[in-house]
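[step 3/7] fold_predict: job queued, chain A
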Amino acid sequence: MKKVIKLTESHLIDIVKRVIWEQLVSNQLSEVKKDVYKPEWTKDDTILSLYIAKYDIMDFPEFRVGGHKEAYDELANRVIGSTGNSLLRQQLNIEWLLGKDNNQSDVSDLQKQVVDEYGKMSRDELKQICRKIINHNMDGENYQNFLKQREAKRKGERAKEEEIKKKAAKDKLDAEFRRLGHDPSRMKLIGMVPKSAAE
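[step 4/7] structure written:
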């Protein structure tokens, strides 16, 4: 016999939010293998992660730029100098230390230290510490380093895309030469004919 459970509207909303959150986490973690922007997180970074793990990133109005994903990106980029996905990974590690069963056990000694030292503080006490960290680091050196690394990464990606396009064009041209009965490996490009001269 099936058991019927009555849920209030608020319980149902909480369940739906949790399912959506878990899907978001799953999608973001599948994208994150290694933090290329900031491989070493500081104590301040970890304190921010602790606050988010215990409370809510939306407690800081400057990061209310959209949904949670945008807020994570803003805080991670502008204060920590990393990505929202990496911040989420840090948060999940800390949640595991706080006793939440989320299949995360890749915690660092620094995360353990921060949880031991700051984990029992009240929301307001911890928020004041986070406010100082945010005010001190907002759009500072971490953010500038992040922007430089992100631009270098994007430049590398653009160069790869350009290389792929060139190779595809060459392969297409070689295929056309083969179709006409010529061996492309024995041909040599000696110059381009201007379009006006070819007409």
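[step 5/7] annotate
The chain has two domains: 9-139, 155-198.
Residues 29-35 have pLDDT under 50 and may be disordered.
exit 0
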